[in-house]
Design a protein that fits this description.
five-stranded mixed sheet, seven-stranded antiparallel sheet, 683 residues, 24 helices
């Protein structure tokens, strides 16, 4: 293992979620697990590690300059507003790093004691609040700073103890009937693309596909079968339900599930709507909120993505009580549409089980506790597990299934870009080489052959192509690229075959167009809500919201690009919309600008959705027309009117956060003192 996210999410999300849900007698929940994730838990318990853990274990006094650099570069990988700022010591270290003038002297500016505190906090901040009273967590939180090496090691040992509890806890709760559990295909592949990469054309007829058509439904079947075997091994009963990776379905995938005895699968509401068209069924006569059936026996659920996305993207910015009241009112409004025909109404709420919570205060404990309390006590609402709904609700027949995923009802994230297609071609070549070798060497070492096939199945996982292409560019694309190619190289080496030379060169070509481009000149745009002329914003910085994407995907997106610039008096921002007309659908549009300079400052700016001029005491001039442009006097950001700046732009409906950019680290730039500006060419 190279990256730390399995371990860090294990101590933050994978154990507390079921433990919280079962506190409430009438709440039924279904947790989906990925078998390869469980394998990674076991790797840690067997002594495995990752780079972050290795660096955390090192004595602070013994760190080399290179190791100090790496710690300072990677140990603040957490959502600053919720995971850094609330903790005084972690925030101090973060601000000190932000104020450092030159990367070359960073290690010298941090003492061994500060680096050890950073080692602790970069792990401690991921501990779920449910465990705040366990030792050594309680003592570390109370102490806050000046940690010892022994205290640090106790924290790292505690992490392994939590990981060891995850699977047994799920097993016990499942066997008691307190939770339901589903699995994903073993290595999290996009099943329809394994069956046939041509399936991508159903949603995107003109998509450019790999040179070699990948058509191996037997691999899709094997990934599902391995998952079912793992489930029965762990839980001593047959698997009932499956969340296909990324909600990716097709008729061929459904047929395999029927063949293997899977009882239910789930996807997104957009897949239902396109499936109804494909089945020549009337959408108005076939509601989202029920159970469907394909063939004789495979039940299908389709997530209500509006209400699911409110949990994933909206409620993190609300008070817990208000958020839960809003959620419950949505449920009851849906129920009201069915009047007295409630016996077959099911509202599937399905969302990412880990990434959403770090954007909530207190890791969403306040929200989830209140949500479960109201669900448990409200006489109008009954929660059911997916398996219960699949067996008790009278389903509607769905003759055809549209091929797509829960993200925009297509597979564009995983295929179609040059990098994605190259990865598919390398995978196809490696698999063909294995099949050819196996046919010619039937007496070859069976252990090595099994290991070679495992490398292929791992390389079929969806996460590799998630990070290829333009949709998701982040700090770890190179590592994912290296790991993907390493699995293919391993396959060739296990068979004693020559490794194709292209596997030693990166597929990932870097970011052709960075999400963030910094200003390279002073500019004074006309604040009129129009793209006045081509060169008006020339020299400005920019952030591409469309290409930046995020760890999660929402149903709607409003902003396409953020432009930013400054002159001797003002800091300027321009917001470009994907579709200006969507602003009209926002009841109470509000722009929120969160500035770190370096202290946090929030500028809230309500604006008229129909357009026009508006201002506040902090924003001297703003206009919405085809774009939204505004000017903030520099004195409202810095007392000295210059300095380092980080900022996040959020679009709200009243107090509801519709979207925020960037989703993780703020956009960062240096605003120079008037008359001492220094710009470097960016081309």
């Amino acid at each position: 293992m190279v990256l730390p996210w399995v371990r860090l999410h294990a101590i933050k999300d994978y154990l507390d979620m079921p433990l919280m849900a079962v506190r409430y007698e009438n709440v039924k929940t279904t947790f989906n697990l990925v078998p390869s994730l469980l394998d990674q838990f076991q790797l840690y318990l067997d002594g495995g590690s990752d780079n972050h853990l290795d660096l955390s274990r090192l004595k602070a006094e013994s760190l080399t300059e290179e190791q100090r650099h790496e710690i300072l570069a990677t140990f603040f990988s957490a959502h600053p507003p919720r995971m850094i700022e609330p903790h005084n010591r972690y925030r101090e270290l973060y601000q000190k790093l932000s104020n450092c003038p030159d990367d070359l002297v960073l290690p010298a500016l941090f003492s061994s004691e500060e680096l050890r505190d950073l080692q602790v906090w970069s792990n401690l901040v991921w501990v779920d609040p449910l465990f705040a009273n366990e030792e050594p967590i309680r003592s570390l939180l109370q102490k806050e700073r000046h940690f010892s090496e022994e205290e640090k090691q106790a924290l790292l040992d505690w992490q392994m103890d939590v990981i060891a509890r995850i699977v047994p806890t799920h097993r016990d709760l499942y066997n008691q009937g307190l939770i339901d559990i589903s699995f994903t295909p073993y290595y999290h592949p996009i099943l329809p693309l394994l069956c046939d990469t041509e399936s991508a054309r159903e949603a995107l007829p003109s998509i450019t596909l790999p040179k070699v058509r990948f058509c191996h439904p037997e691999d899709a079947e094997r990934q599902i079968a391995m998952s079912m075997e793992k489930f029965e091994e762990l839980f001593d009963r047959p698997l009932q339900g499956m969340w296909p990776s990324e909600g990716s379905v097709s008729e061929e995938v459904a047929d395999i599930c029927l063949k293997l005895g899977v009882k239910w699968i789930a996807s997104d509401e957009e897949i239902l709507y396109h499936s109804l068209v494909k089945s020549t069924l009337n959408r108005s006569d076939n509601p989202l909120h029920t159970v469907y059936e394909y063939g004789p026996g495979l039940k299908l659920f389709f997530r209500d993505h509006a209400i699911s996305d409110r949990i994933g993207f909206v409620y993190s910015g609300w008070d817990a009580d208000r958020a839960v009241d809003d959620f419950m009112s949505h449920l009851k409004r849906i129920g009201g549409l069915f009047n007295n025909r409630m016996e077959n109404v099911v509202i599937p709420v399905i969302l990412d089980g880990e990434n959403a919570w770090e954007y909530f205060p207190n890791d969403a404990h306040d929200f989830l506790d209140e949500l479960y309390r109201q669900l448990s006590t409200d006489p109008e609402i009954e929660t059911v597990t997916m398996t219960e709904a699949a067996t008790s609700v009278n389903p509607r027949q769905l003759p055809s299934i549209f091929a797509g995923s829960w993200i925009n009802h297509n597979f564009r994230i995983w295929i179609g870009h040059e990098e994605d297609n190259t990865a598919w071609d390398y995978l196809a070549a490696a698999r063909d080489a294995l099949v050819t070798f196996e046919s010619k060497h039937q007496d070859y070492n069976s252990v090595k052959l099994k290991a070679a096939w495992q490398q292929i199945y791992i390389a079929e996982g969806s996460d590799w192509c998630w990070w290829y292409g333009d949709e998701h560019r982040g700090a770890y694309n190179e590592q994912f690229d290296n790991i993907f190619r390493r699995h293919l190289i391993n396959m060739y080496e296990l068979l004693g075959l020559d490794v194709p030379i292209e596997l030693f060169s990166p597929i990932f070509r870097g970011t052709p167009k960075a999400h963030t481009i910094l200003p390279d000149d002073l500019i004074t745009p006309v604040i009129d809500g129009h793209k006045t002329h081509f060169y008006e914003w020339a020299g400005a910085g920019s952030y591409n919201c469309v290409e930046a994407g995020g760890a999660m995907h929402r149903a709607e997106q409003y902003l396409s690009e953020i432009l930013f610039a400054y002159d001797s008096k003002n800091f300027y921002i321009r917001l470009d919309f994907i579709d200006r007309n969507t602003v009209e659908s926002i009841k109470e549009p509000v722009l929120q600008l969160i500035c770190y300079a370096p202290e946090r400052k929030v500028i809230t700016l309500p604006f008229p959705k129909e357009g026009g001029h508006f201002e506040t005491k902090e924003v001297s001039h703003a206009v919405l027309d085809e774009v939204l442009e505004l000017a903030v006097p520099r004195r409202h950001i810095w007392t000295e009117e210059f300095g380092k700046l980080g900022f996040i732009v959020s679009l709200l409906d009243g107090r509801v956060v519709l979207e925020s950019w960037p989703e993780d680290e703020p956009i960062k730039l240096q605003v120079f003192q008037t008359g001492k500006e220094l710009f470097w060419p960016t081309g």
